[in-house]
Amino acid sequence: MQVDITGKQMDITPALRDYVNTKVNKAEKYLHRDYGVQVILDVNKLIHTCEVIVNVKGGRITAKEHGEEMYASIDLAMDKVEQQLRKYKEKLSHHKGGQSMAEVALQTES
């Protein structure tokens, strides 16, 4: 999975980069393809913002969180993304084929 980490008005430390990669890899179990993930970290005075964008087939999954600490903002945003990815994956699996109308007709005739 390709992870793009961008820092606005801040430098991305190696520890912060590792933390984001760990969180994104945890959410990878909900993705069955190589989707791109973009993480935007921003500091504006005392407000730390984390925005996570996942491009999936047919749309985009986004989550944005604000907080006093960057790590807490990352946790909250990734929790939201995981929840949305779980829902997306369930939607995909429920829409995949069941029985065709011909199979149902054959079973009812028997």
Describe what this molecule looks like in 3D.
With 110 residues, this protein is α+β, with helices and mostly antiparallel strands. It has one domain (2-109): Double Stranded RNA Binding Domain (2-Layer Sandwich). It is 45% helix and 32% strand. It contains 3 helices and 4 strands; from the N terminus they run βαβββαα. It has helices spanning 14-27, 70-95, 101-109, and strands at 2-8, 36-44, 47-56, 59-67. A hairpin with a 2-residue loop joins strand 3 and strand 4. Helix 1 packs parallel to helix 2. It is elongated, with a radius of gyration of 19 Å.
Number of domains: 1
- Helix-and-strand structural type: alpha+beta
What is the CATH C-level name? Alpha Beta
Helix content: 40-55%
Kindly, what is the distance between the CA atoms of the first and last residues, rounded to a whole number of angstroms? 48 Å
CATH-defined topology: Double Stranded RNA Binding Domain
Sequence of secondary-structure elements:
EHEEEHH
Major sheet: arrangement of strands = 1-2-3-4
Total helix count? 3
